[in-house]
Amino acid sequence: MIQNPILPGFNPDPSIVRVGDDYYIATSTFEWYPGVQIHHSRDLVNWRLLARPLTRASQLNMLGAPDSCGVWAPCLTYADGLFWLIYTDVKRYGRTSTGGATGSASLRDFHNYLVTSPAIEGPWSDPVYLNSSGFDPSLFHDDDGRKYLLNQLWDHRPGSNRFNGIVAQEYSVADRRLVGQRRNIFPGTAHGLTEAPHLYRRNGWYYLLTAEGGTGWNHGVTMARSRDLHGPYELHPDVTILTARNRPDAALQRAGHADLVDTPDGRTYMVYLCGRPLRNRGTCTLGRETAIQPVVWGDDGWLRTADGQGTPQLQAAAPALAEHRFAAAPAREEFDAPELPVDFQWLRTPWPEELLSLAARPGHLRLFGRESLGGQFRQALVARRQQSHCYSASTVVDFEPEHYQQQAGLVCYYNGAKFHYLYITHDETIGRHLRVMTSLPNHVQTDTFTAPVPLPPNVPVHLRVEVDEERLYFGYRIDGDGDGGGWQWLPQQFDASILSDEANAPGQPNFTGAFVGMACQDMSGAGLHADFDYFEYRERPYSIDPRRT
């Protein structure tokens, strides 16, 4: 059986391709660097994080990009002996007066690019600029060898439909640019917010898959078909073929933004994004995740879910493929290798050497204090996805601040407006001390601080977080207290549900998910560094009081 989601934690907008016996899924990374996550499987059940292809400044530079901008909705295909990767680099989301897509600002910047590689691990080419007319671009390889770019069309004019349908335009491989006339091939349905196009050719039909309803609770997958690529397209009899819309009992919510893949025996599977809301708060701290389930082509030539209900499933039938498991990632990273462990990322910059070093102090991750937490240029924050509603994470930091503008510690982070930060700092009254700063996105008081906890100088400090759904606890231990105990717990219970897509000040984009990691700041300009000796992340069952474990 397939257990959904197959890619837990922040892994939205899946695009899937099969090459021989291998399956690859590309997902969005937004402002996290390097850009685009590619996972690999041989059985559609077991997956591993394989690569992030956008690794250098010529491909992606997100310095200054606002929260939830950056890389949106990659499309991964294979043709002519090459992998083709299309992606959007969003530079401006724009201000809105209300939350969600219904409050969409008029002017936005969506720049669409193409990179290619003969191998999935790279090297990937420098990008070809395509257009900036909208987001969610995808590349369709027709049977005659011609290629077409499809994307959502953005209309900024007053009174217009911002999501103004799906456009298609031919791409010339020889000229490395779009050619011919751009045509609006599908205006969308009454559900609105039409996006995420993928085109397929089957039995003489062109099948167009789109997402509609917005990437929240009304999300769904729409299908239409035509004998001509440019239309007109007739709608599926059910219009929406997969959704959790109006199904509050479904364990997987927000289902949409889908793509299709065929197994060697001709069976079709659909990948799609989804969200798993917290039971007590209804918010999705894990962000938008990726699920998969079988779909069936009917005698009428239309696609439906295997059970005919159009509902996302927690468990789905696996294909008749040999099981292929991958080695589990280690729970504890010691930072002994010359590169960051694959699960970790940083924010925005293509020049990580300005933020971190794994060589300056062997066996440690050194972070150089730069901007404040939430800065949009050079922020020394290295983190990994939260992939379960319940987990433990810990680290130890060697850090001797001399000023209150110098900070380092353990952070639970969604974006620059939503985080809980357990950090070490210093001031002239207390000396070296520990406290928590919380940034609240939807409260009158946006920043709160706990009372300071004095610390002795010149000794490393172990930091720990326990998360159980909406409850979050921080603890600390002075180095030398022994590994068998000695944890001191802050008395506060923090609200983990703010690290979610739904906890939001009106008009601000929220498209990522919760991360947990290490950070260092130095606003004094001295560039003080912090050294982290390990990082441990363990998923676990729900606990009434995780501080006792």
From TrEMBL:
Superkingdom of source: Bacteria
Record site: Important for catalytic activity, responsible for pKa modulation of the active site Glu and correct orientation of both the proton donor and substrate: 136
Alphabetical GO biological process terms: carbohydrate metabolic process
Domain Beta-xylosidase C-terminal Concanavalin A-like intervals: 332-538
CDD domains associated with the record: GH43_SXA-like
Alphabetical list of InterPro entries matching this protein: ConA-like_dom_sf, GH43_C2, Glyco_hydro_43, Glyco_hydro_beta-prop_sf, Glycosyl_Hydrlase_43
Protein name as annotated: Family 43 glycosylhydrolase
GO MF annotations, alphabetized: hydrolase activity, hydrolyzing O-glycosyl compounds
Keywords: Glycosidase, Hydrolase
Residues annotated as catalytic: 13 (proton acceptor), 195 (proton donor)
Signal peptide start and end residues: none
Family: Belongs to the glycosyl hydrolase 43 family.
Listed Pfam families: GH43_C2, Glyco_hydro_43
